[in-house]
C-alpha cells in the first residue's frame, strides 16, 4: 500500500477520490522548509472500507492522516479523543495516532479564519458575515468563524431546516462568544442583509452542478470580501460574479494551505511558513 522508506515518519491524506489532492505537495514543502524527515502519501480508501484502510495504515507505521471527502464523519467516529472544534463540526479532518487513543481534530475552520485574517488582512471581529450552505463544508468552519467574534453570522441554505439545525448545534458556542447567529432560507437573505454584509463565504456546492450564485449582489456591502471555499474551476462562477459586484475575492487555496499547516503543527509541533507554499501551489495550479 505504501512505497515510503520505513525510516521516515509516515502520513497520508485519506479520501475517495484522492488523486486530485494537493495535500502531498503542501506537506512535502512544509517538511522541506522545517527540516522534518517525513513521507506523505495519498491513501485511496474504498467507500465501504475507511476504518479498515486507516487501521492498516496505522499498523504499517503511519503516524497520522488528513481525511477528506467523504470520510470526515467516519473519522470523527474513529477518534477516541477529539478537540472542541471537531466536536462542534461533528467531523474530523486530521487524525493523530496517539498510543493513548487516536486524536481527532478539525483544522478547516481555523484554516479559513487564518486565511481571512492574516492572508487577506480582514479581521473578522465585529463584522456582519453571510455563510452560504449548511452542508459539511459550512459545518466544518462555523465553530472557528464564531470564535473569531464577528458581530453576526447569517447561515443561509437552500434547505432552511439544515441551516436551522446548524444554528441550533452552535447556539451555545455563539452565545459564549457574544455572536448573533441567525439561520434562514436563501430566499430570505435579502430581508436580513441590512446595509449589506461585510463578508460572504460560499460553502455550497452549487457551482458543481452548474447552478449560478444563489443570492443577489445587493446583499454585499461595497468593498465586501467574497470567499469561495473551493478553488480552481469550481470556484470560478462565484468569484467572477462577486468581482462583477465590486467585491474583493478569494478562493479556497489559502484555506487549504492554512488547514494543512495546522495539521502539520498537530503532528510535528512546528508551524510552517504558509506564504511561500501558497505561492508555489498557486503557480503549480495556474495553467501555463
Ligand atoms: P459539502 O461537504 O461540500 O458541504 P454537502 O454536505 O452535500 O457538501 O453540502 C452541499 C451544500 O451546497 C448544501 O448546503 C446544499 O444545499 P442543500 O442543503 O439545500 O442541499 C448546497 N447546494 C448544493 N447545490 C445547490 C444549489 N444548486 N443551490 C443552492 N445550494 C446548493
Topology:
Elements: E1 9-15, H1 23-34, E2 38-44, H2 50-59, E3 62-67, H3 72-78, E4 81-82, H4 84-89, E5 94-96, E6 103-105, H5 108-119, E7 128-132, H6 136-147, E8 152-157, H7 160-169, H8 171-176, E9 180-185, H9 189-192, E10 197-202, E11 220-228, H10 233-244, E12 248-250, H11 253-268, H12 274-285
Parallel strand pairs: 1-2, 1-3, 4-6, 7-8, 7-10, 8-9, 10-11, 11-12
Antiparallel strand pairs: 3-5, 5-6
Helix pairs in contact: 1-11, 1-12, 5-6, 5-11, 11-12
Bound molecules: 2'-monophosphoadenosine-5'-diphosphate.
2'-monophosphoadenosine-5'-diphosphate is lined by residues 133-137, 157-159, 162, 203-206, 209, 211, 214.
Characterization of this structure:
It is a single chain. The chain has 288 residues and is of the alpha/beta class. It folds into 2 domains: 9-106 and 254-285, Leucine Dehydrogenase, chain A, domain 1 (Rossmann fold), CATH 3.40.50; 109-251, NAD(P)-binding Rossmann-like Domain (Rossmann fold, 3-Layer(aba) Sandwich), CATH 3.40.50.720. Helices cover 41% and strands 22% of the residues. It is built from 12 helices and 12 strands. The protein has a 6-stranded mixed beta sheet with strand order 2-1-3-5-6-4, sandwiched between helices. Strands 9-8-7-10-11-12 form a 6-stranded parallel beta sheet, with helices on both faces. β11, α10 and β12 form a beta-alpha-beta unit. The longest helix is centred in the last third of the chain and has 16 residues, at 253-268. The two termini are 33 Å apart. The structure holds 2'-monophosphoadenosine-5'-diphosphate.
